[in-house]
Amino acid sequence: MAVKAYDLSGRIAFVTGAASGIGRACAVLLAQAGATVHAADRDAQGLHETATLIKAQGGATHIHHLDVTDRVQVRQAVASCERLDVMAAVAGIMHSSPVLETRDEDLDRVLAVNFKGVLYACQEAARLMLARGTGGSIVTMASGAVDTGGPGLLCYGAAKAAVVQLTKTLATEVGRHGIRVNAVAPGWIRTPMTDRPDTGAQAHTEALMSRMSPLRRVGEPEDVAHAVLHLASDASAFTTGQILRPNGGVAMPW
Questions:
Q1: Which member of 156, 160, 224, 230 is catalytic?
Q2: Is 120 a catalytic residue?
Q3: Could you give the C-alpha distances from 166 to 70, 114, 140, 170, in angstroms and in order?
Q4: Residue 248, in any domain of the structure
């Protein structure tokens, strides 16, 4: 019974940011669980690689080459689904600058992708779920940055905090229609977004992050994907408006 609760056979999932990292891991795992996955990203090559991985494992997928900051593109892609059971709004970018050196264009760019891109995905997913009347699960991607301050992370942390508020607000508005809305807030995850050009700097950063975690390691994309699968599936049928934190224990808010 417990395993069956994670079965997504016959369901349709939409994943943004699916070309690499956490988004790719989510798309692949949701397909492994039985869902037909609509994978979306602006990285066409990465998208095709994700689709190849899914198909090689016997999964079903459709790809959408789009920019999540373009509301029309997101609307058209989501509308192409016959119905929607799961939305995983994963697409995001990283930016680091001290508060006193942060420019308008830095903030605007990060908010456009990390908040507006998530907002558009949530809006279109909720509209389709409401129109079909079948309920569903919307999973947003927050960050451990919402739980603690970090030097240089004003833009990123502010956008992810806005995602948390979006998640909680939308959960209160659509819950009576059987639509659940939850967020995942990862800690340090080894992805292309967290790669450092210098291998020595990368090793130093990962060693530091590992020491901060009670588990003494950094996370992998699959660690986050399993959290997304849980929230997407019937295993979390009584969970909404919550933040799931696969962060290795670096933050333990009450």
A1: 156
A2: no
A3: 18, 12, 9, 6
A4: no
